[in-house]
């Protein structure tokens, strides 16, 4: 797989999203071409490179829950408004995200990735911001289709 | 007349009962649920090989992947609860296996070094030390804000010394008197005491935290 972080179109979509959603962090997790592992392939606004080593666990944390359910998810005050343990949310811990909103990225109608925006303060993402994240996820689906399928 | 058990004996009994239950659940997940899912996966692969219709084949492939992910998660959950290598191969291999999972879950790199000849520990002590290491590493994820940890095992004739240094934020021990963190630290010390060992914690703001465990062999 071409490294997604090297794709200019991916970088552009994520950078624009970071600006319009006024967030601190944007991360893109995608399932590997071979095997069931989902990894964070690209991030901007990151504080460190932990995201590169994190493998998303199916059904765990914000990204894992999105991949397993196929539905968007929002956290407004991590670690106070979560299901499960705080260690079930590695990307929030690694990047000190207090609020985040994430949506699935579909390939052939199956959730294969996650686009996540996050802030390092308490926040509730507005309907308008949520729509922007969804629109960016749709653009990424189109861009990534030719690289992943 | 009812005989009052010493506090240590009661704590030890409660911990041991909990550990036995955790081990049972872990084995049930691995040997029971995991094996059944694997049988379902094999059956599904057999069905898929006989299906020609492309849409149905795709659907079966997605089902296959979903079961694979579930098997993987069950395996990780089981290892997290009670690593089977702790019983079969001992403390050091169990810690190594846990560190692989730790890095892939939290992105924190752990540099592990072991010097001296590795000894076989009684299972009760292996579990206690393993749990204390797990707690220390979990605290690092939650509070230390670091990407690198150094862990060393030093085996001598009469004792095992383990040091965990996180190079993170550090903290002032006096400030943590009432919260979960303080309880976690107290539990680590208590567990080491019950094995006849010791747990020393030192920390400096801006320089990180160091945990020194010592266990007589």
TrEMBL record, chain A:
It comes from the Bacteria. InterPro entries: GAF, GAF-like_dom_sf. Pfam families: GAF_2. Residues 7-134 form the GAF domain. This is GAF domain-containing protein. It comes from Neobacillus rhizosphaerae.
Automatic annotation (TrEMBL), chain B:
The lineage of its organism: Bacteria, Bacillati, Bacillota, Bacilli, Bacillales. GO terms for molecular function: protein histidine kinase activity. It is an enzyme of class 2 (transferase). Its EC number is 2.7.13.3. It catalyses: ATP + protein L-histidine = ADP + protein N-phospho-L-histidine. The keyword Transferase applies. SUPFAM superfamilies: ATPase domain of HSP90 chaperone/DNA topoisomerase II/histidine kinase (SSF55874). Keywords: ATP-binding, Kinase, Nucleotide-binding, Phosphoprotein, Transferase, Two-component regulatory system. It holds the Pfam family HisKA_3. The gene is nreB. Residues 32-217 form the Histidine kinase domain. This is histidine kinase.
